[in-house]
Amino acid sequence: MPTRPLSNEVLQKTIDVYIASMRSWTDSAKKLGIARSTLEHRLKVAKRRGMLGPMPKALDGFEVKEYSEQIGKNGEVKSRSTKYSPEGGGQFEVPDGYKIKGESVLTDADGQIRARWVKTKEGEEDPLQVASVVRGAFEGFVAKSPNIWRLKDHDEDSLTVYPLADFHLGMFAWSKETEGPDWDLKIAERVLTETFQELVERAPKSRKAVILGLGDLMHADSHKNQTPGSGNIMDVDTRYQKVLPKLCDIIIQCTEFVRHKHAEVEAEFKAGNHDPASTVAIRTGLDLYYRNDKHMTVNTSPSPFWWHGFGVNMLCGTHGDGAKIKDLPGIMASYKREMWGSSKSCHAFTGHVHHELCTEKDGTRVYSLRAPIPSDAWHSAEGYLSGRSMYGFHFHKDKGSTGRSEVEIL
Ligand SMILES: [Mn+2]
Asked: 241-252: per-residue pLDDT in tens?
């Protein structure tokens, strides 16, 4: 145990008793109720602190280091010189997380401690303390990776189609003007990826999946910020050179969610009226990104139509600005006669008008899908208001359509 330094108060009391007892060690020790050796030790400490004279008493925490007297011709004391130094360090405190392993002391001839070495080692870790430290470190941590686990028990006979329609990335909406939510590149990235993640989490565990880009994923097709066809000026958040790479990031992020959940994934991107040139870049970018992934196929067909046969199902997709919805069943039958002939359940997906519609003609269903974005100033002024959703459509190779998943954005 570390020794507490003797207080000046105790020493002064000892000196007083010692002087009153005519400097008798035996009497003083008896009166103080201490051993002679203790008395001797106290007097030595008192002397070092200058309490017994003839030098001035040391200040608290100091002791006499050197004392000298200059003697005159007649043997009288001419002057006295006293040097003081700190009486040694304060109490040693064990650092947090450490415990005392051992101690060594250096004493002088009088047994007074002149130096002390305290050996410490790291204390044994308290598991509860470790747990609380780890918990603290992760406070406020938001996981970047999705809560989607690679599945081992896929439904071998099922397919999920995830249409990505009308992101109009780069579109800018100011709530004060549109009476709807604010929208810009940053908000779009967050809302689109979070919604799509939820959609994938909710989808059934089909072995196969298709990411179907239905066009107008970009709002502007160049730095001119006009619609490529009619040249209408658009409200654009930022530079084309910034928006296109951001769109590729968002699509890759969405594709990664799908790649995690499903075993075999295809992606195909159809051009919209807003982004015919950018769609070529998106296809090329994705194709290059996944060129070494054997579970991922990016189809780079420049056709405005997507075709897919899956068991009894025939599926088709196109942006919706070209072929009319009512004509799509006929187009499916004419362009892909064999697929049409062997199918029993036919479905076509479109975007473009940003609101939901499902029409059926001659047994073929044609879906027009909502966009996941709010209205811009022009659509708002025209009163073109629609709800916002992202979808997944599910098919069984023998049973046809098995329903859909939808996440609404409110
Ligand atoms: Mn469009």
From this structure: 999 999 999 999
